[in-house]
Structure formats: C-alpha cells, structure tokens
Amino acid sequence: MYCKKCGAQIAENSKFCAKCGAATDVDNASEEPNAPEPAQAPPPPVNATLAPAQASAVAEPAAKPAAKLSNRGIIIIAGSIVAIIALVFILMNVFGNSSRIRASVGDVIQFGGIDWLVLDIQDGKALLLSEKILEERPYH
Question: Tens digit of pLDDT for each residue in 101-128?
C-alpha cells in the first residue's frame, strides 16, 4: 500500500504514514475485508533526499520580487565611497610626498654620504653638483 499524500510505501495495517504522518484508509479497509483493493499504479517517486514539503517547494519555486535599494541604502553606499576616496587622498598626501627633498637653491644636502649643492630647482626636480665628483673625474 502507498501513502496518498507523499507516495511512500507503507505496511497494509498502518494507520499513519511513517514518512509524512498522514492518516491512511485502514479503517475503511477493515469495514470491507472481502472487497478487493483497486489496482493502483505507484505514484511517481519523490526526491529521496528531500522531505515532501521541500520537494514541492523545489518543484514549484516561488517568484521572488526584485530587491530594491531604499534611499537610506543608497546614501550609505555613496557616503562610504566618498569616505574611501577621501582616505586615499589623505594617505597619498601624507605618505606620497615623503621622498621629495625640500630644499632651496644654494642649500647643501646629503645623499649617499656625499654633500650636494643645489644649483637649480624646476618642476620639483633639482640640479645638483658635488665637489667630490668634480675632484674625482677630470673634466675639460
């Protein structure tokens, strides 16, 4: 005998389905013991890994409405983007300029263990000269 609700095979004298708990027609069968059971084709198999309620949910998925962003959500996202851009700008100004040499024409700066004389500065670039270099290399 098969359960009319979930299609699981159940014992002939069971009052309830062991799989889904649905009541069976055992009481009607005991009133007519000599009446032959009508031949029933077994119902189509239900996915064995899912419970009957889950199987029906999988077979007929409910349509989900498209999620919409509220005005508050849009404001939060826009504010986050602005905060990240501001943070990047601040960090670039604090740490990005640390390698620049702040000097004026005529200053002597040290680099590589040598004293360099700043001759000119244009577009953030300096023209440097060292007496040590002049002494070591003959120039004509």
Answer: 578 889 988 878 888 888 998 887 888 8
Beta bridge partners of 118: 128
Dig out the tokens for 114 from the structure. Answer: 């040598």
Residues 72 and 27 in one domain: no
Do 77 and 26 belong to one domain? Answer: no
Q: Where are the alpha helices (DSSP H) in the chain?
A: 26-31, 52-59, 71-95, 131-136
Domain count, the chain: 3
Nearest alpha-carbon partner for 8 in 36, 44, 56: 44
Q: Are residues 94 and 127 part of one domain? A: no
109 and 120 belong to one structural domain? yes
Which helix H or strand E contains 126, and what residues bound it?
Answer: strand 125-129
Parent domain of 132: 101-140
CA distance 105 to 132: 19
pLDDT digits (tens, 9 = 90+) for 56-97: 555 555 566 666 778 888 999 999 999 999 999 888 877 765
Between CA 129 and CA 133 the distance in angstroms is 8
